[in-house]
User: Fold Fumarate reductase/succinate dehydrogenase flavoprotein subunit from Streptomyces plicatus.
Amino acid sequence: MSVVDRQEWDVVVVGAGGAGLRAAIEARERGARTAVVCKSLFGKAHTVMAEGGIAAAMGNANSGDDWQVHFRDTMRGGKFLNQWRMAELHAQEAPQRVWELETWGALFDRTEDGRISQRNFGGHEYPRLAHVGDRTGLELIRTLQQKVVALQQEDFRETGDYESRLKVFQECTVTRVLKEGRQVCGVFGYERESGRFFVLEAPAVVIATGGIGKSFKVTSNSWEYTGDGHALALLAGAPLLNMEFVQFHPTGMVWPPSVKGILVTESVRGDGGVLRNADGKRFMFDYVPDVFKDKYAVTEEEADRWYDDPDRNRRPPELLPRDEVARAINAEVKEGRGSPHGGVFLDVSTRMPAEVIRRRLPSMYHQFKELADVDITAEPMEVGPTCHYVMGGIAVDSDTAAARGVPGLFAAGEVAGGMHGSNRLGGNSLSDLLVFGRRAGRYAAEHAAGRGDGTRPRVTGAQVDAAAAEALRPFSAEAEAAAAGEPGVGPPENPYTLHQELQQTMNDLVGIIRREPEMKQALEKLAELRLRARRAGVEGHRQFNPGWHLALDLRNMLLVSECVARAALERTESRGGHTREDHAAMDRAWRNVNLLCSLTDPTGGLAATDPVRGQIALTRERTEPIRPDLLALFEKEELVKYLAEEELS
Ligand code: FAD
Assistant:
């Protein structure tokens, strides 16, 4: 068996995006020796791509804003399926997390009187997004990275070793969370460059690996988003919550094909951009759903007045939550009123002077100029929906971020479920990373501190051998499958072909609008792909071998895709990011139902090949009733639209 490097830490954080870094900083500040592992280069996580801003009710742009308004907006956006305690903590703590970032060196855009500037975004009642042009995620990561380095310098002064208490393992992929009995005892992974295996032993592991978008063909997500953390948790025995809720952002680029899916930030609409169809009509006025009718303008004049006088006018319907806008664009294109390349037009050129566009939306200006040869200061963009974010994720305790059922496992950021209910509001992810990243780091450190040297769970040789054998399988997949007498053994499969087929399947059959027969077809295709993926073979050796990396990632994408498809088939209503053509209405009876996915084989094995049963078992559970003082923040007439009779009484 391969030689495996082993090290001991108190806390291991898997992922160095906003959530992972915030968790690591907190754990280290609370005295835990903390290791951070990330697939890409340090400082190059998906968070860097975040454009619009961080939602926090600081009240800088409108003093009417406070945590209660933010809480209400978040619950409305999630159609009341949010884990309400998370939404409460998030709204209360987000401003502190933004101010803290500033004390660590973040340079936010300012208001005229010198406070942190806040911009409008869909679903937020007030301008609420603290931002740095349209490069907020970059500044967030830069600041957290700088804080990590500052802590390492502090450690050097005390111990003579920069990495004695906080170390980053970059370009390393974790493939298994290891356990002794029910307890987490570490992680197994490989260095992407050398292919060498390693084990980091620790009684507490924080998963902060981000999303799942690479299972879909058209996506705004980066290469890292292969659902690894979701799969790691499932394999470790932790359930995933409400995986049917995948957000399709309304505005991705649609042309040229090589850039299809790349995000066009919501700030474009927040700053005054309007959506028009091929007839030049501002069509969003036709798509305001009943639950939002009293909050959105009914005429273009009122919508336009809102930008200067938000207290006496209602918001433009372009700023409805993302699920509503994405469905509207989809409908316009389907009705034949789309733009030449299958999207609609998003125009800022007639709404703002060129110089303001270049200043407020510099990345968008360059993105369109360089990738599509479109000058957004002079002509409209063509945009359409793109898979953007997963609301579903690891089921966690709201206060501590502890993953359900696996002591020592924690999760934060996009990989964790619950916070955003059925649909996330723009800007609420960056704040989520900071609020729950910090909480995960704190409780992971406390968990580790409670396990002194004598009581720590231990990694055994057998666990390491099993994880190494699984990781090496793509080098001998075909022979192994044949020797095991697996059904359908055939020639080796190309991981890239399998990936493409998976992406096409999820895009076409479990995409923005879902239908029962198509989802059943998707499950059959996923079962076929699962069998073929066991023969995903690679050539060559372990030194930087992207085919091998993809073959390993396929396990995760297939698991997660099955969760999405099964949960989407089960939920016979439309809510937030989950739209069923055959069950088009939101159903109050589903408001308090969570769907949990777990492995059919509780030992963490992946042998199940039965296309009907698959690898994932679904269970329903009732959501915890919303605390009365939080319900009292809403008008009864509004609650009636969402809550079931018994909840209202
Ligand atoms: P990430 O930042 O993705 O970090 C994940 C980390 O996990 C990475 O370091 C990765 O290398 C590592 N990793 C993954 N798998 C493994 C593994 N197996 N082993 C080891 N490491 C692993 N949200 C907002 O609130 N405001 C915005 O303005 C905004 N704009 C966006 C713009 C774009 C284009 C996109 C795509 C998203 C945007 N979002 C925005 C969403 C937001 O950026 C993400 O939800 C958020 O950054 C996720 O952060 P994270 O810390 O959970 O994960």
Notes: The longest helix spans residues 546-570. The mean pLDDT is 93. The radius of gyration is 24 Å. The first strand starts at residue 4 and ends at 8.
